[in-house]
Amino acid sequence: MDQFLKAAFDEANKGLQEGGIPIGSVIVHRGNIIGRGHNRRVQQGSAVLHGEMDAFENAGRQPASVYRECTLYTTLSPCSMCSGAILLYGIPRVIVGENHTFMGEEELLRSRGVLVEVVQDHACVQMMKAFITERPDLWNEDIGAT
């Protein structure tokens, strides 16, 4: 696991320890993390704070020129909401920890010119599998299934 996916994984673990959903993300610009976040829907009672959205929020207001040079790392394939933010801000590259437990909008991103790389990291897969088994109610709520 490279250092940036590891940072996203650490964010996911932080969310799990807080009683939330273990999905983490970091936004990297020129080798530096400018935003990091984890799914905080449960912790904040939020409708939108997925890991990627939290990373965008924590990156703060950035010019489009910065986002066009960034790579977003996420432990799980991005959903339609997070993919929309990736497209809106022009992120050109997304590294996905895994898509076995959830297949997000990777094809949409690719169709719009985003380079999407899926690494199928074992630790990311295991964390999500365990969470889905232990908390199917929260998982289904997070992906809009209930």
Task: Produce the secondary structure layout.
Blueprint: H1 3-17, E1 24-29, E2 32-38, H2 41-44, H3 51-59, H4 64-67, E3 70-74, H5 80-88, E4 93-96, H6 106-111, E5 115-118, H7 122-134, H8 136-142
Parallel strand pairs: 3-4, 4-5
Antiparallel strand pairs: 1-2, 1-3
Low-confidence stretches: none
- Structural class per helix/strand content? alpha/beta
Query: Per the principal axes of the C-alpha atoms, what is the gross shape?
Result: globular
The major sheet is characterized as: 5 strands, mixed
Q: Quick check: average pLDDT? A: 95
Structure description:
With 146 residues, the protein is α/β, with parallel strands linked by helices. Helix content is 46%, strand content 18%. It has eight helices and five strands, in the order H-E-E-H-H-H-E-H-E-H-E-H-H. It has helices spanning 3-17, 41-44, 51-59, 64-67, 80-88, 106-111, 122-134, 136-142, and strands at residues 24-29, 32-38, 70-74, 93-96, 115-118. It has a five-stranded mixed β-sheet. Strand 1 (24-29) and strand 2 (32-38) form a beta hairpin. Helix 7 crosses helix 8 (136-142). The longest helix is centred in the N-terminal third of the chain and has 15 residues, at 3-17. It is globular, with a radius of gyration of 14 Å. The termini are far apart. The model has no long low-confidence stretch (mean pLDDT 95).
Entry summary:
With 146 residues, the chain is an alpha/beta fold. The protein has helices spanning 3-17, 41-44, 51-59, 64-67, 80-88, 106-111, 122-134, 136-142, and strands spanning 24-29, 32-38, 70-74, 93-96, 115-118. It is 46% helix and 18% strand.
